[in-house]
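TASK: fixed-backbone design
INPUT:
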């Protein structure tokens, strides 16, 4: 395996599958099986998952809610998704630990870096819920920060598209996919990879990002083995 320790960032929207809302069980099972496949090969896996299939903090102001309150609601949505993923992983026979950025002691451990590192060393999948525990930060930022803290080799951003394109491939049929691209080119071309805070964290810490299609079974293993799947963002 090319990468020994990874931070896998999953979007909440991807969990919807073909539904309009909530969690598609089939998608959840597929993700669990893909993660199990690389854990069985000795890869240390941490996961951050969004909450957009339930509630997005940035929606709050649009419906008249306070932004900070909305962000905390979004954090709770990520905990729900994290609990669902934990359940699916454990059903697949993978030991997991759910660590939360906010205290919810009945359902998950508080985030402590050394504890997270120890869980990973013991072969457990660590799921980071509730973002970083503060409003105004996205789950992309949480993924970048936690990846740096646990000394991950790479951030793997699993999405519905198979990489970074010159333009939105769903709107522009002539858009072409980058195999590799530098952080600087992403900045200059104003490509949408992660939010700016998350992206800058990775750039400053020279942490590569790979954007790939997580919904295709087997892609996760290919990425971790170093195959040219998706788009690699590097220095």
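OUTPUT:
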């Amino acid at each position: 395996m090319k990468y020994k320790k990874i931070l896998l960032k999953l979007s909440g929207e991807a969990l919807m599958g073909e539904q309009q809302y909530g969690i598609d069980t089939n998608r959840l099972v597929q993700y669990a099986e893909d993660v199990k496949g690389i854990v069985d090969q000795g890869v240390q896996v941490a996961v951050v998952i969004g909450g957009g299939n339930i509630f997005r903090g940035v929606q709050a102001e649009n419906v008249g809610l306070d932004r900070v309150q909305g962000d905390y609601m979004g954090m709770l949505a990520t905990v729900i998704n994290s609990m669902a993923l934990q359940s699916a992983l454990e059903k697949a026979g993978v030991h997991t630990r759910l660590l939360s950025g906010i205290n919810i002691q009945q359902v998950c451990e508080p985030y402590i870096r050394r504890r997270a590192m120890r869980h990973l060393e013991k072969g457990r999948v660590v799921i980071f819920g509730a973002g970083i525990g503060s409003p105004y930060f996205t789950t992309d930022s949480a993924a970048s920060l936690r990846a740096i803290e646990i000394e991950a080799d790479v951030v793997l951003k699993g999405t519905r598209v198979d990489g970074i394109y010159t333009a939105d491939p769903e709107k522009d049929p002539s858009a072409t996919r980058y195999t590799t691209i530098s952080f600087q080119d992403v900045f200059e071309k104003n490509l949408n990879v992660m939010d700016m805070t998350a992206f800058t964290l990775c750039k400053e810490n020279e942490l590569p990002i790979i954007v790939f299609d997580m919904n295709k079974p087997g892609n996760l293993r290919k990425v971790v083995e170093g195959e040219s799947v998706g788009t690699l963002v590097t220095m």
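COMMENT: The chain has one domain: 5-234.
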